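Lab notes, practical 5.
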Amino acid sequence: MAEQFYTILTQIGKAKIANASTLGNKVNFIHFALGDGNGSYYNPIESQQALKNEVWRGQIGNVVIDENNPSWIVLETIIPADQGGFMIREAGVFDDEGNMLAIGKYPETYKPIVSTGSAKDLYIRMILEVSNTSAVNLKIDPTMILATKKDIDILSNRIKKNEDDILNFKKGTTIIEELQTENKTLLGAINELNEKKVDKIQGKGLSTEDYTTDDKNKLKNIENIIEEMHNTIGDINDLTLPAELKGKVLTEQTKYILVKADQAFQSASDGKQQIATAITGKGVPASGSDTFPILANKIGQIETDKTGDATAIASDILTGRTAYVKGSKLIGTMHNNGAISGSITAQNGQYTIPAGYHSGSGKITATFSNLTAGNVRNGVSIGGVTGSFKGGWSLRELSVDYENDRIYEGTFNIDLPRGPITSLNQIKVLLFVWNEYWSYYHAGGTTYKVAGGGYTVSHLWTPLSQWGPDFNPSAGTGNQGSSIYLDSVTMSGTNIRLGFRARLGLDANHIYAKSDLCQIYYES
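Output from the prediction step:
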């Protein structure tokens, strides 16, 4: 399938032109960019914001409305002969804010450069169809001249007509050939010719009264043109004529000068109109009929200082960036910190945030290596960590044989994790005793706190009467009762060791009993 070539407005371009139409603003097309599409064709899309592979960028020469299609905006530029060495497959136009407003798919074209053996100026055109062309700022770059054959033909006809009007200015069959410029300024020659008109043009017998009003006006216009040209270019003797005119009669020389004068006048007139239009666009009314000094004065009236009320200083502007404040250029000194990252590892720790710009993606992280669930009391939340520490069940056994009505006594130790406990004052102990055959008894339903710096050896449990013929200890603390005592408390490393002494009072021939630490409580 053959490639299709086209131009579309981007999403940004559509939005800007629509917004300009609504608010009465203007869209300024500034740059023309060309690319090679990364080596192949592709189909541009509205969401694009840049060319795939830009190879050249330059000023737009002309932005005009097509004379036959009032909804067409025509943008033109020229790539000069000294630039090239690349292929063209894509083109884009950008506004004064750097946004790509339109993108086009172009037929593959190679732009040569002298070093490759060939050179040429390459003319690039883009046509955009918009609903409201008044929203686009039309302009012509005075440093760039783009002309089609049609333009040249029109210009040639106009020059020929002006030449005929000036050089064939006549009354009847009499041609004015008295304009002699040798060793004179062009203005002087015209003035001399006018002096001759006052009484009678020498050798022709033609009085000034014989001229029509229109003819007189033409002559006066020529005089005004030449006067302005003289103020610009000086004496005619300082002009360099083309070689083909050298040696010809003064009449031919005069014809050539008058043609060039007409062309220069027209160019100056067009340029003045463009300048006047630009000045008016900046809020100062101007006209193409204004003189150059008047236009210069109006340019000075254009308000350019839009930063008069700005209060920024250099330290408010990022390093490497610039800004204008009250008409003065400031170079930023604010340090760019980018993304700052830091950490806090202690309670009430602080992190000092450095002065300057921050990207907003930095983080300050609090890190506590010992803040774990096992080191926090069960059910308590600290910094998002919910504690699980509550000691644990630990079973130890004491086995004795009953003989001759003797009460057997023994000791055992229980090691529990220390967790966050740093002092014996923080410990409470809850105990119970288990009789393997019958039941278990809570140690009086009471918790006991270890006294500061040490502990109190206390009778923690008094057995209750049990049923059955083999086990019937009496209540109380005598030899017939079973008891358990907290005998010692020590802390070392990661553990707390509780030492217990148990006494079993039994009347059976043989019984097996176990003692168990129920729980250690942490108390701050």
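Observations recorded by the TA: Residues 83 and 405 are 120 Å apart (CA to CA). The helical segments are 11-23, 149-167, 186-199, 213-233, 250-281, 292-300.
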